[in-house]
Write a structure and sequence with these properties.
binds pyridoxal-5'-phosphate, alpha/beta
């Protein structure tokens, strides 16, 4: 997922434009900034490239999710249904607005299982938040249908899936709102940054104010702005936006390289009949940032991971099942409600419940899944070497295992 791999002259030029004027802030200083508005330019580019009505930049993907929830009116006591496989930011954002994260199983798309969502709906459910992990997507038609039936908000955490599409539309632009992250390891980076995308003008105006202390941004004089509601500071800086502007112009190049390298490496894994691949919902096109593949059993998967580690080729291969950041099995701080401040009874009860909740359907999938991240700068020779080594390790483990039976 690495736009940083192709950092270069273009980013330097955009940042320099900002350094020349010295106006590092995205609002105000109309005279001295000499027409340089990088954040505004990037927001316009985002609406054009991804095809959404409005885009509000933020300081991170996490603050984009928090902003989206606030602007959608998700708050105290509201339940947000989300998957057990995601990045910690997804539940952090839910908790930060006082809402209750309801974690449910994934399916072989590696994202929210629509059946698990249906089973988790209660009178308090307000929002369904699919997380489009590792470059591909949830079954959005199924989730949209559920949301329509139950009058729920659909908020897409598309932070990891910049450039992927579903039925011709960019992920993140299909629900009531969606977010991208532009942190350092995402498909395009600002160093730190994020965006809320929506087609709803009112939701956009709320997002705009929320990220800047509730400013209404209506007057020419920032100091005279009114505050129709309480906001926070989740602003992006002009320096960060400048980097993002250079990166979004290179997105097509990134995606083309990503696809080429992904398919070349995948061809090696396809030689092994025991391997299967992540399911992509009909009508979906993934961003090719990862190859996510399954072995037949957890035992085999653990053996392959161990052998890859021993041979020094584990880097770039993620066994999420035992990963501290991405899967429920390792989120003890969440299960123990390890917050620095008091939280509501509803939140406490929901988090305590996680300790005894089984995610056996997700375990059965995640324990067999390895995701291989795709570099933009691999040479053909490096892909060949990587592919051959991976195939050798997997075949060795499969043969040992079969001999042992
Ligand atoms: C990266 C990421 C985020 C948060 O983004 P930051 O910019 O790092 O705050 C949220 N959700 C998912 C799925 C992510 O991968």
């Amino acid at each position: 997922m690495p736009g940083f791999e192709l950092f270069g002259e273009e980013e330097r030029k955009e940042v320099n434009d900002v350094l020349e004027t010295g106006i590092l802030m995205r609002y105000g200083f109309d005279g001295p900034r000499k027409g340089i508005w990088k954040a505004k330019e990037l927001e316009t580019a985002i609406t054009q490239v991804f095809g959404c009505g409005y885009a509000q930049l933020t300081s991170s993907g996490t603050s984009a999710l928090t902003t989206a929830m606030a602007a959608l009116g998700i708050g105290a006591g509201d339940e947000v249904i989300m998957p057990a496989f995601t990045f910690v930011a997804s539940f952090e954002a839910v908790l930060s607005v006082g809402a209750v994260p309801v974690l449910v199983d994934i399916d072989e798309t590696l994202t929210l299982s629509p059946d698990a969502v249906r089973a988790a709906i209660t009178p308090k459910t307000k929002c369904v938040m699919p997380v489009h992990m590792c470059g591909s997507m949830a079954d959005l038609d199924a989730l949209k249908q559920i949301c329509a039936e139950h009058h729920l908000i659909l908020l897409e955490d598309a932070c990891q899936s910049i450039g992927a599409t579903y039925k011709g539309k960019s992920l993140g632009t299909i629900g009531d709102a969606g977010t991208f992250s532009f942190d350092f390891v995402k498909t395009i980076t600002c160093a730190e940054g994020g965006v809320v995308m929506t087609n709803d003008k009112d939701m956009y105006i709320k997002s705009d104010g929320y990220t800047d202390h509730g400013h209404d941004h209506l007057g020419a004089d920032r100091g005279a702005d009114l505050h129709p509601f309480i906001g926070y500071n989740y602003r992006i800086s002009e320096l960060h936006a400048a980097v993002g502007l250079a990166q979004i112009r290179k997105l097509d190049t990134f995606l083309t390289l990503q696809k080429k390298n992904n398919l070349a490496l995948r061809a090696y894994l396809e030689q092994i009949p025991e391997i299967s691949f992540r399911v992509i919902p009909e009508g979906g096109v993934d961003s090719y940032s990862f190859i996510s593949w399954f072995l037949p059993t957890e035992e085999l998967t653990r053996a392959v991971v161990a052998e890859m580690k021993m041979q020094g080729i584990l880097a770039g291969n993620f066994y999420w099942f035992v990963n501290n950041w991405h899967y429920i099995s390792k989120w003890d701080h969440l299960k123990q409600a390890g917050t620095l401040h008091a939280i509501s009874e509803e939140q406490k009860i929901a988090l305590a419940k996680l300790k005894s909740t089984q995610f056996s359907a997700s375990d059965a999938i995640m324990s067999r899944c390895i995701s291989t991240s795709i570099s933009l700068v691999w040479t053909d020779e490096q892909i060949r070497e990587k592919g051959e080594k991976m195939v050798a390790v997997i075949k060795k483990v499969l043969q040992t295992q079969m001999a042992g039976v």
